[in-house]
Amino acid sequence: MKTYYYIFCKDSILLEHCNDGSYTIPLQETPPVEVKPWTVILNIAPEDGYEVKAYQIDSPVTDNEKYEMCPLRQSYYKLPLEMYLKAGKCAELIYWHNNTKYCGVCGGSMKFHTDISKRCEQCGKEVWPQLATAIIVLIRRGDDEVLLARGRNFKSDFYGLIAGFVETGETLEQAVRREVMEETGLRIKNIRYFGSQPWPYPCGLMVGFNAEYESGELHVQREELKKAAWFHRDHLPNLPEKLSIARKLIDNWLNETI
User: Fold this and answer.
1) What pTM was computed for the model?
2) What kind and span of H or E run contains 85?
């Protein structure tokens, strides 16, 4: 039976060239890259009626014109959206598998119980993949200004939105208010849900909101941000990539659909 094979080497995924110049995930009866005796192949939820499997390889494929290694994030621009999302799920499950080999209670070996759960061979504790939930918020001031910031972990010179992880015991809205206050010193109002996005780098769920400036002077939390400022819609800095929910929030604001 033909199977989609999502194959990873570090942070890159194996793509197959199509005759029309597009890309796809290898779909064939046997693995396209050699499976070692120690390779763990994960079973993933089916796609388009075909089985889906995922595994890691030790070295990138470089000597086969049929295939190309592509960073997972950049595969957004090459794969159909559904395949990109499935690739993210596969990457998250591989990360989860690699980080749950031993029981956190007794130290015993964890073995697969279902495709997305493991059970300790000694004490029976079961574990499932867990997500790190984060909020991200677009803050507008009036109709034409938006708050944009450069995080200390940004690798290029773009400006994004205020974001942060949800803490234990918080609602999403409480996390939005806290992160904005901690990172900028501002108070916000009219918090409204926008949408969410899986963020498999390595195991996140981004929950997006819109909000309005209420009061306060901008004071940047230097531990988290390099810069933050209000920008007019006609004079924006470099923005995040199209694949991110941050960019979707900004584009939505620019199109005046909020």
Assistant:
1) 0.91
2) helix 81-98
